Amino acid sequence: MNNLNQFAGGVHYVGVNDRTTHLFEGLWLVPLGVSYNAYVVLGSEHTALIDTVDAEHATQLELKLQAVLNGRKLDYIVVNHMEHDHSGALPHICRCHPEATVVGNAKTAAMLDGYFGIKGVHTVADTDTLSLGPDCTLQFHLTPMLHWPETMMTRLVEQGVLFSGDAFGCFGALNGAVVDRDMNTDAYRLEMYRYYASIVAKYGVPVQTALRKLDGVQLNYICSTHGPVWHDQLAEVVQTYADLAQWKAEPGVVVAYASMHGNATGMAEHIAGQLAAAGVRNVVLQDLNVTNLSYVLMNIARYSGLVVGGPTYNTQIHPRVAALLEALKNSGMQRRVVGLFGGYTWSPGVTKKMAAALDGLKIDLLDTLVEYKQTPTAADLEAATALAQAIAGHIAL
Ligand code: FEO
Q1: Among 42, 265, 352, 372, which has the minimal tally of Cβ within 10 Å of its Cβ?
Q2: Do 295 and 199 belong to one domain?
Q3: How far is the centre of ligand 1, averaged over its atoms, from the C-alpha of 298 (Å)?
Q4: CA of 83 to the centre of ligand 1 (A)
């Protein structure tokens, strides 16, 4: 094991990389792969494994664990999060280390029983501590709904190391180095937006609560369950999370559309051109028929404007458009200016249906719904131009 896997004194990285899964959670494309991070803390008296990995990688984790333990016994297995990319290997690790005590909160304990039949969990409450020896104290911070009910963070107090679960995580397998200072993090920082937008966005309020709990706590390292360990860029990623949780955005517009025979594509291109002509520099045109939703959600998380459009399909919203609108409703999107357009052949009203799908969100939905019958006319294009100009006028350029 190379020394890049050890940091902050007694903390060792024992995570694994997955470069074969095509769709994370069966939903989200991961062309750069994904890491499942686990860590070992070696105290002078006791040892602890923080989280495990996906079940398929259990053997690899155990080999790394044995190398780090180097003959010492494993005393504790801390479970910060029960989702299976982090708990799947737990039964195997428990079989390999029957002497180890599993540590979690009350909700974790119930899930450990329900999923794996694991009982006898050492249950901790918020701010409880566990000593691994002098100057080696684990403290537990309950952070529910980030993004499951049982989620918590564990802090190695003396070293200022936060094992944060999925929070501050990102897609992208690790390529040799583990800590941000030892790598180029550009791709990971962008993938953090995509991870957040796809998986965490619904839980902005719990994220803000968790960040408040950490306010004033001295941190040197944030160790998420996915992606790099944050050290040099710690403050920036915390700020990114704070911004995302409040739906803060850069000036820019996403034009997300589905098309069947080209008219919606033409309308989307027209609107994008008009946005650019109005001075919007960040315009992202995304075809919902061929783009994994995570990339669209990522850009919607980044930019303050959004246009959604597409044809009527069997008198209803096109399925790809409907899926996006449902995801946005589910995420509780806020603070966006939104325009809608839609086409039909014999059954009008699709844009009203689209507007209804976003009902209740704290967004600025433009009153003008651009709806065209069959091939868009010059008047339809003029209406689309007005829509683009209205959006450009709403966002801070
Ligand atoms: Fe990475 Fe919520 O699991």
Answers
A1: 352
A2: no
A3: 17
A4: 5
Determine the atom of ligand 1 nearest the C-alpha atom of 166.
Answer: 1
pLDDT at 1: 53
Q: CATH no. for residue 373? A: 3.40.50.360
Closest Cα to atom 2, ligand 1: which residue?
A: 83
Q: Specify the CATH number for the domain of residue 139.
A: 3.60.15.10
Give pLDDT tens digits for 254-307. 999 999 999 999 999 999 999 999 999 999 999 999 999 999 999 999 999 999
Of 218, 245, 272, the residue that ends a domain is 245
In angstroms, the CA 287 to CA 293 distance is 10
Minimal CA–CA distance to 174: which of 238, 225, 235? 225
**How many of the other CB atoms lie within 10 Å of CB of 135?**
14
The domain total for the chain is 2
What's the whole-number mean pLDDT along residues 82-101? 98
**Do 324 and 284 share a domain, yes or no?**
yes
**Report field, pTM of the whole predicted structure over 0.90:** yes
Ligand 1 pocket list (CB less than 6 A):
81, 83, 85-86, 147, 166, 225-226
